[in-house]
Amino acid sequence: MQQPDTSGLQVWFPAINEWIPVPVKEDSFVVNIGDLLQMWTGGYFKSALHRVVNFGEKHRMSAPFFYNGNIDCKVRALDGSGFETTVEEHIKRRLKESKVAHCLDN
User: Fold this and answer.
1) Rounded CA gap, 76 and 41, in Å?
2) Which residue from 24, 43, 63, 74 has the least number of CB within 10 angstroms?
3) Contact between residue 10 and residue 21 where contact means Cβ atoms under 8 Å apart
4) Alpha-carbon gap, residue 77 to 24, rounded angstroms
5) What is the pLDDT of residues 5-63, one digit of tens each?
6) Which of 75, 56, 63, 59 is closest to 29 using CA atoms?
7) Burial of 42 by CB count in 10 Å (0-12 exposed, 13-18 middle, 19+ buried)?
8) Sign of the Cα pseudo-torsion (64, 68, 30, 105, in order)
9) Which residues contact 43 (CB under 8 A, 6 or more apart)?
10) Residue 91, class by beta-carbon neighbours within 10 Å (0-12 exposed, 13-18 middle, 19+ buried)?
11) What confidence category does residue 102 fall into, taking pLDDT thresholds of 50, 70 and 90?
12) pTM for this structure?
């Protein structure tokens, strides 16, 4: 839920290789779809690469909530495409990718 008169949440738009600001709409929530939901829907819903940049002089707070589900749950696209994985395997793979990416940045 974004506060009125604030900005800074952006999503990456690959088609034009730019960060696009997310408009602030009073009394609404912004929900970022995660990688598992993208996989589950066969790419119908996209997992958005996003960031927050504080352009103002006031402090800005974010309160992310992550829900990964049952670690033993098997996940495969509902249309049968792609590969099957478990929530646990997915989390471990993403953590490993993040660690490698972080090491490459430093």
Assistant:
1) 9
2) 63
3) yes
4) 32
5) 777 889 999 899 999 999 888 888 888 888 888 988 998 998 988 888 887 777 777 77
6) 63
7) middle
8) positive
9) 77
10) middle
11) low
12) 0.69
Cα radius of gyration rounded to whole Å, the chain = 16
Q: Is the dihedral of CA 87, 85, 38, 21 positive or negative?
A: positive
Helix (H, G, I), strand (E, B) or coil at 105: helix
Q: Which residue has the tokens 């790419």?
A: 43
Take residue 13 and report the two structure tokens written for it: 């738009």
Query: Is residue 85 left, alpha or beta, with left meaning phi > 0 and alpha meaning psi from -120 to 50?
Result: beta
Kindly state the tokens that stand for 1. Answer: 């839920």
DSSP three-state, residue 46? coil
Measured distance CA(48)–CA(14) in Å, rounded: 10
How many residues are recorded in the chain?
106
CA distance 66 to 59: 23
